[in-house]
Amino acid sequence: MVPKRLRAPFDERPVARETAVAVVAVGAFVVWIQALWSLAYRVTSTVDPDALATTDLGELTATALSNRVVLLAGIAVFALAHARLRGLPVELSLPDRTDIPMVATAALVPVAGVAAVTVLASATGTTLAVLEGTYYAQDADPLLPATLTLLTLLVGLPAYVFVAHEAVQRPLSAAGRPWTAVAVTTLFVGAIGPREIVGTGLPARAAVVFLVLAACVALPAVAAHAFDYEWLPALCAIPLALFVGGVLVSRFGGADGLAEGALVFTGLAVVAVAAHGYERTGSLVVPAVAYAAFVVGIDAVAFAVGIGATP
């Protein structure tokens, strides 16, 4: 139980409260996933799934599945613990007939974005395969990239849906700010990258980054509660603005050329349409479709243009 004096600055500012809590939850999730990767590799080395397969593709699939089982179990445990701590019921509703146009939009926007990036990449002398670092031999079997895509979706899809639309969007929307929930979800998750949530990295660095961001979100609310100066909350919001601006500049500025920048922007658009669809329908099917279409679209085009290409 949080002491009353610590809750006071946020009692009348539910958006600040839910955003700060969401940042901490996502940070904890990222650290949790990165720790699980180490456990997954140990399980794989102990089980030795390669002994159960007779082909290279079979060995790859068996090894990857042994990793994914650990990660999926970890995601489920974290999601259930989060729902219990936040007092949120687990909802898995399906869209009804009136939501079909929204589901179709969620599928078409990522595909259109990937198509636009592909055309732009070609016009600027590169390809989506180069941007993704994906290369295949001339006689590559399509079953290989299809398997890799399915393995990516196996963990990436539930992780994305939980982070973006359960940990971030749903509590903000419940606080009575649906459009704020869509905007914050798009900015926050889009800046991370919808496909990068389950990536590996340094857990300690990730924890520090998310804690600093949570402090930046909380600072203006605390200032508004503790002091009567109207200008102070705006001044205390400067660190948050600098943090968000720095992340966006890093995300887009780190893009190698116009085409890669367009790919980053497409990721933001995918999160936006997924968040809007979830807000409209209340069904996680819509963001799941958007994410799956994005991943499948990128992988399919990268395979098509990457066959026989030289790294």
TrEMBL record:
Q: Which UniProt keywords apply?
A: Membrane, Transmembrane, Transmembrane helix
Q: Which residues are listed as membrane-spanning?
A: 20-40, 60-81, 102-123, 143-163, 204-225, 231-249, 261-278, 284-309
Top-level taxon in the UniProt lineage: Archaea
Q: Which residues form a coiled coil?
A: none
- Specify the protein name: Uncharacterized protein
Q: Which organism is it from?
A: Halosimplex pelagicum
